[in-house]
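>> Question from a student workshop board

For tomorrow's exercise we were told to take the sequence and the ligand below, predict the bound structure, and bring the output to class. My setup keeps failing. Could a helper post the expected result so I can at least see what it should look like? The ligand is fructose -6-phosphate.
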Amino acid sequence: MKIYKAKDYNDMSRKAANIISAQVIMKPDCVLGLATGSTPVGAYQQLVKWYEKGDIDFSEVKTVNLDEYKGLPIENDQSYYYFMHENLFDKVNVKPENTNLPNGMEPDAEKECARYEALIQSLGGVDLQLLGLGHNGHIGFNEPGAAFEKETHCVDLQERTIEANKRFFASADDVPRQAYTMGIKTIMMAKKILIVVSGEDKADIVAKAFFGPVTPSVPASILQMHPDVTVVADEAALSKAPC
Ligand code: F6R
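>> Workshop helper replied:
Here is what the output should look like for this input. Compare the format with yours to find the bug.
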């Protein structure tokens, strides 16, 4: 596990965007695993800027997102589909047919999860998976206690996650209760993983996830077992880490 300390959020975003950009330059038809949430927004903005300058070309890139709320239509501005279009897809030259997210409107969870997992396999697997880190150590929607051997599946969101996400909805009652997410096994099969973390409020979980024991009660701790993980975190997020 390589850990890069960034000065602040902007520095973290630039470093992360550099790593993603290097992946696209070295393998123009790579499969990028993407994340939503507030942390990667700055990296996406940086990638858009470089695209506009002609420094990065997404025309052959394929993308697979980590997760999607179950039951939210793509037109809903809180769907992850909407987020990805707003923050990246509509601003660069990635082909719409090369972008993939779980279909939150498919009610048959078993069918949708099997489709998504097969799709990832059919693309040859993920070359670089971008992740954010939840306050409880979740990655994707794999909450504490999630089995490490799971592939894409449907989860019931935990109270803390609903609380954290309610700021984006009219009220906590409007936050969907379920989501489709790549499982830990799916994430661990990515050839490379890049996890971005920012802010003092993540300092405790950063210390636990990357410097504590590997345990299902901190899902991100399993990343310590992956052969090619890069953590890009700002000073505040690393303030309780022994490094
Ligand atoms: C997003 C995702 C989540 C977030 C995590 C951190 O696709 O799967 O695991 O990465 O909740 O969210 P932020 O970045 O908003 O703190």
